[in-house]
């Protein structure tokens, strides 16, 4: 389907496929060119070290580990938390379950368990955690699965960028700890979850045992994620990163852009949510089904009775020059740093014309 191909032959006029399509700012490029660097594998790159320390501090964790991607960060976290064959639980359609090539099982050796969305899209309840734990044998035989980990996602991508509110996040972590599980948070977009609640990122994350954050989602950096956790955990995770081929040499050129992102982009990130709210409102005025978003991800479904499928709707918009993706039963549009008010207005006009023609 054309809307799902990044190499579409149709020129994209307004790219709303993801907040990962942003281009590095001039400030980022300048910082990359001037970054102090060293061999991060042998004796640590100084700019990477600075980024690790600063991000860990933001997330109220003792240490950080810079990795190329959020998927690697999640995988390294699972490899550190789990023994081979151990069970972990995550909400239905979590990124760690559906969009990381099954590496949780393939490489980390984890057995996945799925939790329902009892408290809304993407959000399990503390009772779901307790119930899942009660399915495990109280005194497992040597051949029984052993559950050790709860994986949360905030915001939940597949659910439409939904936020686990702070009170619920704390309750979920507490429920997991009560049954003896650790908690890993895929917080690739924790920046958005925090801004939507008027909280710091660490407050929005809650008292998790490890957390992944991403510099290329929302913050506009070209590459990189960070795994934050206690020092001993990060020391082991650093070995797993190397085993996976993630040991980087003069990676300070990448870390420098991420530092600029924290300085310049994190303070403005709620603008993306506000534009997403305006976009959803404009789409509803066109008769489309587009609930108000929690954050910067807008999910859109065809109007009832239009006869259009999400794929047909996305194809029409893509042909008009609006970059978009089909996600499940909806079309996903994501606002980001490179989408200003002018681009947003242009997108609405293109979508309006394309939708009328398609109908």
Question: What does this entry look like structurally?
Answer:
This protein is α/β, with parallel strands linked by helices. Helix content is 42%, strand content 15%. It has helices at 26-34, 46-58, 70-81, 95-98, 103-106, 126-134, 166-178, 190-197, 201-205, 231-243, 252-265, 270-285, 310-320, 341-358; strands at 14-15, 63-67, 87-91, 111-115, 147-153, 182-187, 210-214, 225-229, 297-300, 322-323, 325-327, 330-334. The chain has a 7-stranded mixed sheet with strand order 2-8-7-6-5-3-4, sandwiched between helices. The chain has a 3-stranded antiparallel sheet with strand order 9-12-11. The protein has a two-stranded parallel ribbon with strand order 1-10. α2 (46-58) runs parallel beside α11, α3 crosses α10 (231-243) and α12 runs parallel beside α14 (341-358). The longest helix is centred in the C-terminal third of the chain and has 18 residues, at 341-358. It starts with 13 loop residues before the first strand and ends with a helix.
């Amino acid at each position: 389907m054309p809307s799902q191909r990044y190499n579409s032959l149709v020129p994209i006029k307004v790219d709303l496929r993801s907040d990962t399509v942003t281009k590095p700012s001039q400030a980022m490029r300048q910082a990359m060119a001037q970054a102090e660097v060293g061999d991060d594998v042998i004796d640590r790159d100084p700019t990477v070290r600075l980024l690790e320390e600063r991000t860990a501090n933001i997330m109220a964790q003792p240490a950080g580990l810079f990795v190329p991607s959020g998927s690697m960060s999640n995988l390294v976290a699972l490899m550190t938390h789990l023994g081979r064959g151990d069970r972990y639980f995550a909400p239905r359609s979590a990124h760690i379950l559906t969009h990381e090539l099954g590496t949780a099982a393939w490489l980390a050796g984890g057995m996945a368990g799925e939790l329902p969305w009892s408290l809304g899209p993407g959000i399990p309840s503390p009772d779901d955690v307790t119930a899942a734990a009660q399915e495990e044998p109280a005194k497992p035989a040597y051949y029984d699965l052993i559950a050790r980990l709860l994986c949360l996602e905030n915001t939940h991508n597949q659910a439409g960028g939904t936020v686990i509110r702070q009170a619920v996040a704390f309750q979920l972590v507490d429920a997991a700890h009560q049954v003896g599980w650790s908690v890993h948070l895929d917080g690739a977009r924790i920046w958005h979850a925090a801004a939507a609640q008027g909280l710091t990122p660490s407050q929005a994350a809650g008292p998790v045992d490890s957390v992944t954050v991403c510099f290329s989602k929302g913050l506009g950096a070209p590459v990189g994620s960070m795994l934050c956790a206690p020092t001993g955990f990060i020391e082991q995770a650093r070995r797993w990163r190397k085993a996976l081929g993630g040991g980087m040499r003069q990676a300070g050129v990448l870390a420098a852009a991420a530092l600029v992102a924290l300085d310049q982009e994190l303070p403005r990130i709620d603008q993306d949510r506000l534009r997403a709210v305006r976009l959803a409102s404009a789409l509803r005025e066109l008769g489309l089904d587009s609930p108000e978003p929690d954050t910067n991800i807008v999910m859109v479904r065809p109007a009832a009775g239009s006869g259009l499928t999400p794929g047909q709707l996305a194809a029409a918009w893509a042909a008009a020059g609006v970059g978009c993706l089909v996600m499940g039963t909806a079309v996903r549009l994501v606002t980001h740093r490179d989408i200003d008010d002018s681009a947003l207005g242009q997108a609405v006009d293109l979508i309006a014309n394309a939708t009328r023609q398609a109908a």
